[in-house]
Amino acid sequence: MNHTADTHTPAARLYLASASPRRRELLTQIGLAHEVLLVPAPPGEDEPQHPGESAADYVLRTARDKALRGRDWIRAQGLARLPLLAADTTVILAGDVLGKPADRDDAIRILRALSGSTHEVRTAVTVWTGDELLEAVSVTEVRMRDLLAEEIARYCDSGEPFGKAGAYGIQGLAGTFISQIAGSYTGVMGLPLFETANLLRAAGIQVP
């Protein structure tokens, strides 16, 4: 007997307000069908840090802002009412936020600063349930070994540093740079699964 493959796609259980492929992969990893919500970014600098704003406050605010923009977009477009997940990841060295590199020279500068040091990675997760915002923050300490100038140059040539906070992705080639972490590996990737699962359960979504 011939069997036809089941091509049914599970219905989305939440919106993901992020274009990050890593966040999509992590949600898929825990079996959560989702729909990416591409919300137009506000004009101006990408996620600027306000004067006097601490790094800890900055990452939580930016995640919250993403969730609220997503909420407003759902309402404006008349989309189905589903919980919405937003997140923001920040790399912090000596209290300073190290954002996404603007170009190759900026990536080299950031990686030189991180080389041989311990830095902090904070990922804030926000879930809009339709009635309230639920929030959590993952904090992880990451130790990067000493990097040679030629290693940094080769890494930048790979293109991997671009579009990533702190100019590196732990799940990629830079995994060989990291000697130790204390905290959440998935949080460093961009979506801490422990905290995310707890928020989604609080929003009424069953998580394995």
UniProtKB/TrEMBL annotation:
<dbReference type="InterPro" id="IPR003697">
    <property type="entry name" value="Maf-like"/>
</dbReference>
<dbReference type="GO" id="GO:0005737">
    <property type="term" value="C:cytoplasm"/>
</dbReference>
<dbReference type="InterPro" id="IPR029001">
    <property type="entry name" value="ITPase-like_fam"/>
</dbReference>
<comment type="function">
    <text>Nucleoside triphosphate pyrophosphatase that hydrolyzes dTTP and UTP. May have a dual role in cell division arrest and in preventing the incorporation of modified nucleotides into cellular nucleic acids.</text>
</comment>
<keyword id="KW-0963">Cytoplasm</keyword>
<dbReference type="GO" id="GO:0009117">
    <property type="term" value="P:nucleotide metabolic process"/>
</dbReference>
<feature type="site" description="Important for substrate specificity">
    <location>
        <position position="171"/>
    </location>
</feature>
<feature type="active site" description="Proton acceptor">
    <location>
        <position position="88"/>
    </location>
</feature>
<dbReference type="Pfam" id="PF02545">
    <property type="entry name" value="Maf"/>
</dbReference>
<dbReference type="GO" id="GO:0036221">
    <property type="term" value="F:UTP diphosphatase activity"/>
</dbReference>
<feature type="site" description="Important for substrate specificity">
    <location>
        <position position="22"/>
    </location>
</feature>
<keyword id="KW-0546">Nucleotide metabolism</keyword>
<keyword id="KW-0378">Hydrolase</keyword>
<feature type="site" description="Important for substrate specificity">
    <location>
        <position position="89"/>
    </location>
</feature>
<comment type="similarity">
    <text>Belongs to the Maf family. YhdE subfamily.</text>
</comment>
<dbReference type="GO" id="GO:0036218">
    <property type="term" value="F:dTTP diphosphatase activity"/>
</dbReference>
<protein>
    <recommendedName>
        <fullName>dTTP/UTP pyrophosphatase</fullName>
        <ecNumber>3.6.1.9</ecNumber>
    </recommendedName>
</protein>
